[in-house]
Predict the structure of Histidine kinase-, DNA gyrase B-, and HSP90-like ATPase.
Amino acid sequence: MKDENLVEYTNVGAFKLKIYYLKSAKSTVEIIRDFQVRVRKKMLNDFSGIKIYRDDFKVRPYGDDGAFYDWIDLSKRVQSSPAAASHEKGNWRVSPNQLIGSVSISRITNPKLEDTANREGMSINSEYNAFVKLLEGIIAKFEYDRQYPLREYAAWKNEKEKAHEDRRQKIYEQVMKEQADKEEREKLKKNDDSSEADTKDKQEKKGEDYTKDDLKDVIYSIGKKKDYEMTVNQLLMVLSSAGVMAQTFAHEISRIATNLGSRGQHLKESINLLLDYKPYIGDEDFNPYDMLEELSSTDILLSEWVNLIMDCVNKENFHTQEVFINEFLVHIVEKWSTLLARKHIRIEDINCSEDIKLSLPIVDLHLLLNNFLLNSAYFLEECEGERIIKFKVYKEGQKIYLDMENNGPELAKENLQNPDIVLDATVSSKFGGTGLGLWVARESVERNDGRLQVIPISSGFMLRAYWKS
């Protein structure tokens, strides 16, 4: 307190403050003693709050439930500085529901802390305000005393953890480098049968004894898995953000799609008026009608693409419902028709009975089919002749099958032994591809008790999804 402000506190007489701090939840800090949460919560529920006693008689309503429960305004202090006790810079503040306490005063030593005329509390005067400020100062001292050791402990622990993490990272980087070099050497010697036989003999001799190389293999595989999961999570966050943005601006985006589909026609009408509906006479390089035709074609393509995206993020599509597969396939094909026509891709007649249905969120069917069609549109560009996509839906026993096929490039030879590897995230044969598309397709099937498989065929690429009927 500044010297010039001490005068206001001289009129406050002697008082006695007792406070007990009780946490209501178990702490993650190891140095804090454990306690029974249920008993602690009941105690705080029954007794929390700081009461006032004058000459051993309780002054109501201070510390009782209601407006005067937090009469020292501890909640405001928490709101202004909500830092944890272990925070390195922020100041920890105690909440009113974490304290059980009492303040004892006397009429003799504090005559100016008097009751109001209606006996519903004490008069709000300069002495009362100074009294509350003194209590705040005492509580602030308690807060500092509690935070100091916890802050020091947290700093010490963080320093230890950082040193451990730095060491672990160095080991990890060294192992990753050595294993990458080892993989490269093994690729160069993969046809060396004698070397493989020698390695096998060594493995049989050593039995359960693990070598340094074995341990490195394990660390390397763990590291690769960690990198894989991090990459997938980052990509999912990006896609999730894109989906949220699409939903947030759904109305505006839909309006843009409508404008894209019609602005070419409006421009053409404006040019007709300017030319008095007469044919264009002039340099063909500047023929506005040719430019409009190309513009309209691009606008329609963009409009269809935006509509396709907005169709997926419709909120109603996230609820589980009965879906007739044939009807849904017809809907998807119609949405994609303009986009696929631009790439000269044809979808053959859908082979599906009209009574086959599934119970699942429509968005998952969107994810499956849209990702297959996107994948097909990319790889079918390599085809010189006809570009064809086929859908076939059928029942066998207690399962419903959906075969999706295109006549694009065949599965790469290195994947024939394990064709489903192309469904893993980060595995992609596209230049700059993430590999997330087919992984999302697989996830959309598996979360509905189904399975997605890659079926090797001699002339093209095929996915088979199946669910329990």
